[in-house]
Amino acid sequence: MSKRFTKQSINWAQLQKLVPPDEKGKFLAFKAKADSYLRRVNANPPELPKIDWKKYQTLVPVAGMVEKFQKEYEAYKVPYPDDKVSATIDEQWKSLEPQIKAYCDEREHDIKEATKELDAMKKLPKFGEMTMESLYDLYPEQALDPVKRPTFWPHDEESELGYVRKQKVTK
After folding, report:
1. How many CB atoms lie within 10 A of CB 27?
2. What are phi and psi of 149, to 5 degrees?
3. Under 8 Å CB-to-CB from 45, ≥6 apart: which residues?
4. Residue 22: predicted pLDDT
C-alpha cells in the first residue's frame, strides 16, 4: 500500500532561499529526484488490488494450496518500525528553543547597535569636506595631535616612545 500524502512536508520555496548560489544545481537535482519519487508513489493506488481467490481455486489443481496462500497473505502485516527518534528530536528542539531565542535577541541587540553606529556615521561630514581640525573635534583620541602626543616616523605603534612589546600568552 502506498501512503497518501495530503500536503507537502517540505517548503521548497523557503528552502531554496537558504541554498547558496553555488549549490543551486545540486538543490534543483535533489528537488527533481524528490518530485519524481513523489509522483511514482502517488501513481500507485492507495490500496492494493483485491485478489480473486475463487478464480485461483478453480485454476490451481492442488487442493488446499490457494486457501493456505490466502490465510498467509491475509495474516501478513508489513512491519513498520516504531518512531523512537521523533520524540527525542522534539525534546531536543524544545530544549534548544530558549537558546535560539536568546541568540536571536542578542543579534537583534547587535543590529540595533550597528544601526546606531551607521546613523552616527551618516551624520558625519563627507570625507572630502573634513579638515584636520574637524577630525580632532570629532575624535580627539584618534586624531593627530603633535603637541600633546607627538609621533615619530614611521608613525606606527612600535616606533613610539614608551612602547612595550606585548607578551605572547602560552598555555
Report:
1. 15
2. -135, 80
3. 2
4. 96
Residue 97 has pLDDT above 80, yes or no: yes
| Burial call 13-26: b when 16+ CB within 10 Å, e when fewer | eeeeeeeeeeeeee
Joined together, the cell numbers standing for residue 83 give 518512531
- Total-model pTM: 0.42
The pLDDT of residue 4 is 66
Cα-atom radius of gyration of the chain, to the nearest Å?
A: 37
Residue closest to 55 by CA, chosen among 69, 75, 74: 69
What pairs with residue 149 in β-bridges? 145
SS3 readout for 53-102: HHHHHHHCCCCCHHHHHHHHHHHCCCCCCCCCHHHHHHHHHHHHHHHHHH
**Residue-level pLDDT at 171:** 64
| Euclidean distance between CA atoms 164 and 153, whole angstroms | 17
What is residue 115's DSSP assignment? H
At 12-28, the pLDDT tens digits run 999 999 999 999 999 99
DSSP element (H, E) containing 37: helix 24-43
CA distance 171 to 149: 36
> Is pLDDT of 154 > 60?
yes
